[in-house]
Specification:
Blueprint (H helix, E strand, L loop, with lengths): L2 H8 L5 E2 L5 H11 L3 E6 L2 E7 H10 L9 H4 L13 H11 L3 E6 L2 E7 H24 L7
Parallel strand pairs: 1-2
Antiparallel strand pairs: 2-3, 4-5
């Protein structure tokens, strides 16, 4: 299974902010849509990723005050990315090694979407469920031995 398979099932809804957006605006977008990350675009190009991790770290650093902090000041500037053709096993390895919960998917310079650790886990569970169903059907239909 590839990342493109996840994107095809998930859809291509993308939530984004600019580096000059206020963090509080980003928090409101994330809360309104029940999401844990936003891609940060500048003139259509991916320049970073903002997740609840960066927001919480900033809140802790500034005793819970966001004031006029801009997204560009706290975002992950070099987010881990993958391509639509990346195999799911490779994505799992990448996400675990870097402790990344969200991965922008780039096809060249074009942002195709974002996959989450949840999306990857869900795909693995569904694939295993399908495989189990097929194996059970195969065993149930096992031809009897001729005597």
């Amino acid at each position: 299974m590839q990342v493109s398979d996840i994107l095809r099932l998930k859809g291509n809804t993308l939530f984004k902010v600019s580096p000059t957006s206020l963090v509080m605006e980003a928090v409101n977008i994330m809360a309104d849509h029940d999401i844990g990350s936003l891609v940060v675009l500048d003139q259509g190009a991916l320049v970073g990723m903002l997740t609840f991790r960066e927001i919480i770290q900033n809140l802790a650093k500034h005793q819970g005050v966001l004031d006029q902090v801009q997204v560009g000041a706290i975002m992950e500037k070099m987010p881990l990315v993958c391509e639509p053709q990346t195999e799911l096993d490779e994505v799992r390895k990448m996400m675990l090694e870097r402790h990344a919960r969200y991965l922008p998917v780039l096809d060249g310079q074009i942002l195709m979407g974002v996959i989450s650790f949840y999306d990857v886990a869900k795909s693995v569970v569904e694939a295993q469920g399908f495989e189990n169903t097929m194996l059970k059907a195969y065993i149930r239909d096992w031809p009897s031995e001729a005597k």
